[in-house]
Write a structure and sequence with these properties.
The chain is of the alpha/beta class. The chain has one domain: Rossmann fold (3-Layer(aba) Sandwich). The protein has helices at residues 61-64, 67-70, 80-105, 120-127, 143-148, 153-160, 194-210, 233-244, 264-267, 276-279, 292-307, 336-343, 347-357, 363-386, 419-422, and strands at residues 135-138, 184-187, 221-226, 249-255, 258-259, 262-263, 284-288, 313-318. Strand 5 (258-259) and strand 6 (262-263) form a beta hairpin. The protein is globular, with a radius of gyration of 22 Å. The structure holds thiamine diphosphate (TPP) and magnesium ion (MG). Magnesium ion (MG) binds at residues 226-228, 256, 258-259. Its EC number is 1.2.4.1. InterPro entries: DH_E1, PDH_E1_Alpha_Subunit, Pyrv_DH_E1_asu_subgrp-y, THDP-binding. This is Pyruvate dehydrogenase E1 component subunit alpha. Residues 89-390 form the Dehydrogenase E1 component domain.
Length: 428
């Protein structure tokens, strides 16, 4: 069933924790939102007097099955090979980020570093379905998106160390992963900043196919961003353009309930972000972002829809970050009960359990993967540590659109190498 088929209302994909079954929210309390222990400052969710302009979303049939059906062999959502790929990618993301924390506290990295622990099912569930030519746009929480898209761990680690062998030659750092080769077209530090870039990438794909008649240009762009970013104007502008021009893009909201220390339900008039899709004439879907198999099913439909030229989708993935906003955040604001609730829904343990119960892998096979990834990460750290720092002459490269006008002197050398250039200004 395609996402555009208006047969299924969003209620068929109930927000899983909105019921009294939520273990951490007493039923007497006001409408809980996901696993948040906070109450909305405002009163009940707004009920529109008229129904939304287009009927919201369907999800793949598989998702409508209950959990029992999902575990029956005839309904398995993945093959063994697919499951191993997903498991390996999630372990890669988690292990990489844990190592980053260690290296950051040892002083090997500079500036802010935002980790992705807890959110792996989203990166893996979406990006592992992409072709090499498809594009990914991320935020400052971008290491794992780059890894899932195939940027080698050593190139990402080296970038974090600010070394010349990093994927941006040490000029980007943690928040600006980029790889032309892998079509990772940026991590962006300003929130919402990547959404128009992703929209432009999707536009170029459509332009190449429809105007330049490149028949194989069916490339899809995924734009990843957070719940807090959905209160930013660029989000709405781009939803509008993407729907208007039926662009091949999927807007993937990683709703981890928090924007630094601001609770999503305190900052947003209607916290159900997926509902904003139909307002612009595109499907909006909510999915459990702690379950890679569910994410993957929804992603398959949304990516397929984009590739077929049927237009954009908005997917809201309910998730949680297991660490503070950045490694500089002591993470004292969030309720321990909320953290414990989501820790119990760790996406890696969930996939592992599914694979073992359905005999898709043995403990030994999964351990072998973990060991392989440990070795890759160890090697990445050694590589980054031993790599040279960029030459001083690289400092102003890619900073100015016309470097001849500013960064490079008449002798063709970077002006930062000219002692007079830096006299009286910041020393470089
Ligand atoms: C335009 C802009 N305004 C403010 C900030 C400061 N800021 C950094 S992260 C952040 C919160 C973003 O939260 P969310 O979109 O939910 O992403 P998450 O960190 O949860 O992944 C804010 C406001 C920024 N980076 N850019
Ligand atoms: Mg957030």
């Amino acid at each position: 069933m395609s996402l555009s088929t208006p047969k299924v209302s969003a209620q068929l994909l109930p927000l899983p924790l909105r019921s009294n079954a939520n273990p951490i929210i007493p039923s007497s309390q006001f409408t809980p939102f996901f696993g948040s222990t906070l109450k909305s400052r405002f009163n009940a969710p707004i009920h529109l007097s008229s129904p939304p302009r287009s009927i919201v979303a369907s999800v793949s049939d598989a998702l409508k099955l209950n959990n029992n059906n999902l575990t029956s062999p005839s309904n398995l959502l993945i093959t063994k090979e697919e499951g191993l790929v997903l498991y390996e990618d999630m372990i890669l993301g988690r292990t990489f980020e844990d190592m980053c924390a260690q290296m950051y506290y040892r002083g090997k990295m500079f500036g802010f570093v935002h980790l992705y622990n807890g959110q792996e099912a989203i990166s893996t569930g979406f990006i592992k379905l992409l072709k090499k030519e498809d594009s990914v746009v991320s935020t400052y929480r971008d290491h794992v998106h780059a890894l899932s898209k195939g940027v080698p761990a050593r190139a990402v680690m080296s970038e974090l160390f600010g070394k010349a062998t990093g994927c941006c030659r040490g000029q980007g750092g943690s928040m600006h992963m980029f790889s032309k080769e892998h079509n990772v077209i940026g991590g962006f530090a300003f929130i919402g900043e990547g959404i128009p870039v992703a929209t432009g990438a999707a536009f170029s794909s459509k332009y190449r196919r429809e105007v330049l008649k490149e028949a194989d240009a069916d490339y899809v762009t995924l734009a990843f961003f957070g719940d807090g970013t959905c209160n930013n104007g660029q989000f709405y502008e781009c939803l509008n353009m993407a729907a208007l021009w039926k662009l091949p893009i999927v807007f993937v909201v990683e709703n981890n309930l928090w924007a630094i220390g601001m609770s999503h339900i305190r900052a947003t008039s209607d916290p159900e972000i997926w509902k904003k899709g139909p307002a612009f004439g595109m499907p909006g879907v909510h999915v459990d972002g702690m379950d890679v198999l569910k994410v993957r099913e929804v992603a398959k439909e949304a990516i397929g829809r984009a590739r077929r030229g049927e237009g954009p989708s908005l997917i809201e993935c309910e998730t949680y970050r297991f660490r503070g906003h950045s490694l500089a955040d002591p993470d004292e604001l969030r309720d321990p009960a909320e953290k414990a609730h989501y820790a119990g829904r760790d996406p890696i343990s969930t996939l592992k359990k599914y694979m073992l119960e359905n005999k898709l892998a043995s403990e030994q096979e999964l351990k072998t993967i973990e060991k392989k990834i440990d070795e890759i990460i160890e090697e990445a750290v050694e590589f980054a540590d031993e790599s040279p720092v960029p030459p001083r002459s690289q400092l102003l490269e890619n900073v100015f659109a016309d470097p001849k006008g500013f960064g490079i002197g008449p002798d063709g050398r970077y002006r930062c190498e000219d002692p007079k250039f830096t006299e009286g200004t910041a020393q470089v």
